[in-house]
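Course assignment 3, question 2. Fill in each field.
Student: A.L.
Task: Predict the tertiary structure for the chain below.
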Amino acid sequence: MLDSTEPKGLVPFTEESLKLIKQHIAKKHNEEHEEDDLKPDSALEVGKKLPFIYGELSRGMVSEPLEDVDSYYYVKKNTFMVLNKKRTIFRFNAASILCTLSPFSPIRGTTIKVLVHPFFRLLILISVLTDCIFMTMTNWSIWITAIENTLLGIYTFEILVKIIARGFWAGSFSFLADPWNWLDFGVTLFEIITRYSPLNFVLNLKTVRTLRILKIIPLNQGLKSLVETLIQCLKKLFGAIILTLFFLSVFSLIGMGLFMGNLKHKCLRWPQEDENETLHNRTGNPYYIRETENFYYLEGERYALLCGNTTDAGQCPEGYVCVKAGLNPDLGYTNFDNFGWALLALFRLMTQDYPEALYHQILYASGKIYMIFFVVVSFWFAFYLASLFLGILAMAYEEGKHATDEKSKKEPTFQQPISKLQEGSEEAESKTTQIEMKKRSPASMNTSLDVLEEDTLRHKEELKKSRKKCPLCWYRFSKFFLIWNCSPCWLKLKEFVHRLITDPFTDLFLLICIILNIYFLAWEHYPMSDDHSYLLSIGNLLRVFKLGKYWPTFEILMLTLGNSLSALKDLILLLFTFIFFSAVFGMKLFGWSYKACVCRIDENCQLPRWHMHDFFHSCLNVFRILCGEWIETLWDCMEVAGQPWCISFYMMVILIGNLLVLYLFLALVSSFSSYKDSTSEENNEVKNIQLAMARIKKGVNYVLHKILCKKQNVPQETTDHVNDTYVKENISDHTLSEFSNTQVFLKDKEKSSGTEKNTMTDNESQSLIPSPSVSETVPIASGESDVENLDNKEIQSKSGNGDSRDKIKQSSSSECSTVDIAISEEEEMVYECEKAKYLKNGFEQRSSPGQISRVSKKAKIWQNIRKTCCKIVENSWFRCFIGLVTLLSTGALAFEDIYIDQRKTIKILLEYADMIFTYIFILEMLLKWMAYGFKAYFSNGWYKLDFMVVIVFCLSLLGKTREDLKPLTSIKFLRALRVLSQFERMKVVVRGLIKTILPTLNVFLVCLMIWLIFSIMGVHLFSGTFYECIDPTSEERFPVSEVVNRSQCENLVLNESMPWENAKLNFDNVGNGFLSLLQVATFNGWITIMNSAIDSVGVNMQPDFEYNLYIYYYFISFIILGLFLPLSMLISVIITNFNKHKIKQGGSNIFITVKQRKQYRKLKRLMYEDSPRPLPRPRNKFQGFVFDLVTNQVFNIIIMVLIHVQAVTIMIQSDEQSQQMDIAVYWINAIFVILYTLECILKLISFHCYYFTIIWNVFDFVVVIFSITGLFLPMTIGYYLVPPSLVQLILLSRIIHVLRLGKGPRVFHNLMLPLMLSLPALLNIGLFIFLVMFIYAIFGMYNFAYVKKEAGINDVSNFETFGSSMLCLFQVTIFAGWDGMLNAIFNSKWSDCDPDKINPGTQVRGDCGNPSVGIFYFVSYILISWLVIVNMYIVVVMEFLSIVSKKKSRTLSEDDFRKFFQVWKRFDPDRTQYIDSSQLSDFAAALDPPLFMAKPNKGQLIAMDLPMAVGDRIHCLDILLAFTKRVMGKDARVEKLLSEVESGFVLANPFKITYEPITTTLKRKQEAVSATIIQRAYKSYRLRQNDKNTSDIHIIDGDRDVQATKEGVYFDKAKEKSTIQSQI
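Answer field:
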């Protein structure tokens, strides 16, 4: 059996088998030989069912030892196999080593039978689930303890069975060989010790029992394999994790240097008693007093107002001074006073949890200038590093998916006949069903063959979807009672009903009913009359899903969603298992602490809403953490349970939970990538709707024709064909074609182009990783492969044939050129071309409405005027002037803030500037009208935008003339839109966004429908229930014990009637429901909305604390079904469109211009540069010695160590350190400055002027200069103006050397590569985001500048000035704090604001907001910014995936060719383009992968059959082409690539030496072998002639030697030929 590698039957495992195994083990130890060619069979893994090809399983073989059918395990692992009744495979060690009993031991045999029995596994699973249920209980009783002891006994019994059956230690299948058994053994042992030991263990140690929940994972094979996959993902994420920790540490150190101790600055009432002593106590003593009543508090705030001493920091009101006193905010946990708290604050910013609070605190205490710090941190962590994690996880998921597909393809062929039999049976069933259908309904004979075929196909699909057969009783019932063919009247009735049901107007009527039903459901609001309530009671929410019958996209997405969730059930189960485990673990760990120490976090000693005292609240807390809201509950946890345990628990939940959520999200995105829009695949209902609408439209046209007495111009055609065609022709949207020529132009271009185009296969479009074959460029080709102004060729995009161009010329109103529709850079080129034609043809042009006669002088003058205008508008200087004016007019808007009335001079200048700008743009518009004509001008979308901006300029000027027209000036913010049409980078971004977003409109409507369902549900549940009775003095809600309902609130009179107020965000109607759901979706203000819903009791009832606790399920369902799943749908479709258009553009990024594509290639070449050119060594001995010193690797290592040591010295500092520590830090900084200065001097001595040719040396030189200045500057101007941390931060900047290639880890360089390569696209998108922010900032200044400062609008974040507006919009961009701003804008009533308030320095009165404008403002900005940011993520992730895919695929990049020629220069220093054939082996071994060929490589090189010139020389191009073909293989695109390589080489080397190859490497080898054979034969002949007188024995011996030599030669020759053939 050991010699056979393919066992084909089940053989009992006997003692002879065991002896063979022992002999094999002994032989293996003696000979040290092992079969390396054996590999495990994937179909025979442990846990899978044994295929039936191995024979039937008799009763005697069940649960008995069998010889392993997999040779890998039987031969190499020395195992035997056991099968249970379900043919499940179990493996055990056969050798008796270290407490492993013999396979024939009755004890071990009994335990094996118990272990493999299915009921044993079921018993353990039931025990674990039961134990999980009891873990969630907090009320203990005696019977629960008894059950837990029973479960502990079961677990102990399981461990004993496994140890006896498998052995304890040795072998691949022993008990401890499985890591899950380690966990099980440790938990059981620890539970026994803690339960029965007399020692009193710590309560926290008893929570180890909760690890038993994880036992569910090894009991499910899918969960177990998924955990292994995630562990592999963690290994791939190791580099990104290290990079994240590195930057977290660096930014934490920067935060310490900038903000240490600043958050303790507060406004203190001054003067007081003992004035001097008290002030000295607060400023000089390091031990600050706690917060007192003398601090200034804003209304409704818990912590004192922060302040700063800089001009742009927060200022104290009159009577208060800013001092450093008291504790840090947020219970003292938010600060940068030491490295630990700074690291926690940076981690909070990285996860974007409540960042607006920390944002405001820092800006209040330090100044608005430090918003740069938050912008950099948000971009780096929340964007780029998050993109890296997404890219790596996407790569890991695609690799796992590909491995699974490959594994499924390698399944045994014996599984195919079963599936074929099933398909055959399904076909037979479908045929019999068709026959029965024909027999049952003779009336159906009147239908057409098309309908029958469609019914047949539909029936086949139904059979494939469901294999359940209809029971015979139901078949007989339907045949007897439902099929009546005997009565003619009944048949006529059936025919009439059939026609009625299949009529298109019936489907239209049903669709209208569904839409009306949805409308009635959405119409519900509070308060509402009884009549409306009765009308709405007939609606049913579930009927919304019936819309999918008439909406193919909705149906396909729902089916895709169902299939995706079914395929990802293991991942979803693992996520829920982790949530359950975390909830139980948190409850056991912190539940008692919340109850015992609740007074620390609540004045009334009442448990807060978010705690972990019981299982339900603990689950909610874990879910909130996974949603990204964790910092506030962490503060409470640290107060009641201590910092170490809370931080450890929260970090575990955040890191592992987010890993699972991101992996699930990427899996859903990948599964939705297979979605395709169903515009072509429409069902009968959709076709009927289109047919009915076409008939209605035709009827309306006919009626209008009769009424107006006009003749129809449309020819009469057959109704069905006309209507179908008419419907399809009216689908296209012509208004967007001028902005986005996405599909038609590219198709026409592919048809007209003679070159081949790369097409996207199904696998490429459905994968997250783009195919490298479509994005590969050859660097040494003759020219650039990019097409200038790809998206601007609107003529080709709108023309389907050649005649369309003539039609455009005929309709042109321009005589000087045909630039009617051409735009931007093409206009001048087309103009010159037409001008030459015009002169050549003698002014002969086609006739047009505006044709000018050659004889007329006026016509010539008009023609010359238009030519002149055309030259002016096409002139580059004119374009630059217009661009500059556009920027000036846009920038002037930023000065019109609330202080503009106080700056009279600036206001007058702006008024005159507006007039000048208006006249300039009007003049430009008139020039373009003259040059291009009206039709051409208004056919261009960008010119339409310019025209609209000119109208805005005119209206704004008109608004200044009259007081009643003054509101027209508020539309001035639209002037900034002109920037879009003036700069190509903006145009590219707009086109790219349209290409990726417009196709998602259908999916977006589906997501909107899901939100509509949840909004309607919210209206049904919460309409009118968010009202509450508020105490005006404390602004808190009255308890239920005092006020029960609205009537009691209105009758409760203290000094005045109590207000019965509604929450600003509620579910009183569908619109408010949408807004509330948007806040829940962005996790801004969602806690307040949930609190109102949880406390709601009923209409006109006073809310009670957590009265309706299980309403949490509504919001959890919305976050999962209304946010998580729709988000994956949208992003998947956007990624698909991005990849599709990227492939159509030849693999280049759709967000970069043509010029930037060239810069992208240069940047890519620079980033792939291995090392800079070596500097020349000085001839001077001393300088040469210094040069050797500074270029030594040891010297560089010492410098890197110094940089890290300097970073450590910053880490050990704190805000309350002693004076001795400050002195020590000063001298340490001085030592580092001296060392870095010495390094700089040494490099200057050795490198001379070459020192400044390296950018890193320039950076180090600047650091040394600034650090020396910062060290000595405080001695001259004082320490107050120059903080001591300045020198430390300057020195810390050198830590960026870690990212330098060759200095730090290479993985850092590889992870930084996607950012650098995607930088051009990110800059373009960043400029677009800035323009959007600019427009919305100006709009906010015009509408919300005087809103009452409350909630999210304060002294830092407001719309008073342009800078403050940008700060607000930055918060909204990162989805932070916009709910507070909207709440302040909601103050529009007299009770909330003062409409007559006088604002000093301006004529504007009032501080009220406009809710409708505020909702539009924030919702529109959130949608636009979200779409743009999603595309930014996609750009980086796709760049990362493309880099990875190119590295793994057999492709050659520009960098590979560059490295080839770099190596060639070493072997051909004289640039002869030839090398000797003897150097070829060394040259191939010196190349870098993938062109690299390791030695011995002579056989492979000979097999390439390279041409050789005179002198056995080989040309460079021949070697390059041969090596390229070896890497790329035999592919259709290889020949094209080789031709491009050859043409590029010829163009790059025009002086190539022509030669005629005289032979090849293969022929030369054959000649050498032939010559060797001839020489040996001749030598043997001469040897025989010279030795005639010798004995016969010697002659025979000599002949044998010669024969052996010949045989060896012929053998070598045959071997070489076989090698050559295999290589070729």
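Instructor remarks: The chain is about 60% helix and 0% strand. The chain has a mean pLDDT of 78.
Grade: pending
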